[in-house]
Every structure is written in C-alpha cells, then in structure tokens.
Amino acid sequence: MMKLHDSMGPNPRLVRMFLAEKGMEVELVPVDLMAGENRQPEYLQKNPTGQLPCLELDEGSFLSETLVICEYIEDVHPTPVLIGSNAKEKAETRMWVRRIDLNINSNMANAFRFGPGHSLFKDRIRTIPQASDDLKLLAAEQLAWLDGQMEGRAFIVGERFSMADIILFAFLEFGSNFGQPMAPELKNIARWYESVAARPATQASA
Fold first, then answer.
1. CA 1 to centroid of chain Cα atoms
2. Which helix (H) or strand (E) holds 110?
3. Which of 55, 109, 119, 204 would bridge 63 by S-S if both were Cys, CB 3.0 to 4.6 A apart?
4. What is the structure's pLDDT at 124?
5. Has residue 82 been placed in a domain?
6. How far apart are CA 75 and CA 81, in angstroms?
7. Residue 40 is part of which domain span?
8. Domain containing residue 43: CATH number
C-alpha cells in the first residue's frame, strides 16, 4: 500500500482531498512539522527539499510536489477523472491549476510564511517579512479576478469538478484561518467554496 507522509497545512490537505475524491485509501504517516521532523536526516532521505507531503510508492520510491503527486494518482487511478479524460480537458485543467498555483496559492503561502508564520519559518527558509502584506494583496486581487471568471460556472473548469477546485479550496481554507479571509463581495467564489466544502471527500479528508 502507498503511504502519504502527511502533516498540517494546505499542501498535505489537497493531496488528501484528491485521494478521497478518488476513493483511494493510503496509509497516512504523520510528520511533526512544528518540531521540525521534516528537516531531519531521516525525512530528508525521502524528500531532500524537506517539504510535505511526500508519497511513498509500493516499491519504496518517493514522489514529492503536490501537483506531481496528484498527476501520478490520476495516472494510476484514472476514475473518477480529476484532471481530464482527453487532451483538451487535461490542458484546460492544467491551465487553471497553473493560474491558481502561481497567482493565488503561492502568494498566499508566502504571505503566511513571511507574516503570521514568520517565527516558524525564519530559521528554515529565507523570509521577507516586509513582503507579506503585498503578497496578501496580490493573492486577493487574483482571487477577485477569478471570481469574475466564475460567473455562471459550477466549478473552476466549467461544469466538471477538477484538481483546480481542490488546490484552490485547500489554500482558501487555510487562509481563512490565518489572516487571509475571502472578501465578502466575492459571491461566485463564496458559492463555489460552500459547494466544495459540502462534498463528502472534502469532509472525510479534513
């Protein structure tokens, strides 16, 4: 059985959501992020970046990077489809995933690392405390743009639930607890967020 080396935070959360949507059960191996267990030699042998999560395959090799893990899971367990069933669908999903990951999620994550999470990260990575507020603004501006794009859509990629919905939900959920709440005027995002939060896989993977 595959193992997911797991912890708190939006990145492990989104992989757990992806697995739950697939109906896949894997062993969850907790890694104590607060204690810095992910920076110790034993974990660094699995993932030299020290980041979480990390997927351990049946034969003992390891995959890291959340989007890569999700792509692998889709390949080995193609139903239900969460990336695409043909070239066009896959390209559309990856287009939106890239927009969200670069413009919203990365800015939200760094705003946290450089701001509320600074005491945790300052001795682990290079931090830029003075950038935190501006990164929050960049993420909020891009989320407002996405709100406009989602007028009349059930999900980010039209009418089909996809990896794009999962990665955005995990980060908005995280941000709402750490100083980056969604603006109340984003009605399309709010409606979408409630629908994703109500999904059985979302609740089961919390």
1. 23
2. helix 106-114
3. 55
4. 83
5. no
6. 10
7. 3-76
8. 3.40.30.10
Q: Are residues 120 and 176 in the same domain?
A: yes
Q: Report the C-alpha gap between 191 and 112 in whole angstroms.
A: 25
User: Which 3 state secondary structure label does DSSP give 111?
Assistant: helix
Full-model pTM: 0.96
Say which CATH number the domain at 188 has: 1.20.1050.10
Query: 8 and 28 in contact (C-beta within 8 Å)?
Result: no
Only one residue has tokens 């669908």, namely: 89
Whether residues 71 and 156 fall in one domain = no
Do residues 64 and 131 both lie within one domain?
A: no
| pLDDT number for residue 125 | 87
| Alpha carbon of residue 181 to chain centroid | 16
Q: Is residue 186 domain-resident? A: yes
Contact present, 24 and 69 (Cβ < 8 Å): no
Cα separation, 36 vs 43, in Å, equals 10
Q: Is the dihedral of CA 104, 105, 106, 109 positive or negative?
A: positive
Could you list the mean pLDDT of each consecutive 10-residue stretch along the chain, which spans 206 residues? 96 98 97 93 96 97 98 98 98 98 97 93 91 97 98 97 98 94 96 98 96
| Counted domains in the chain | 2
| Locus of tokens 């893990």 | 69
Tokens found for residue 90:
């896959």
CA 178 to centroid of chain Cα atoms: 15
Backbone φ and ψ for 28, nearest 5 degrees, come out as -95, 125
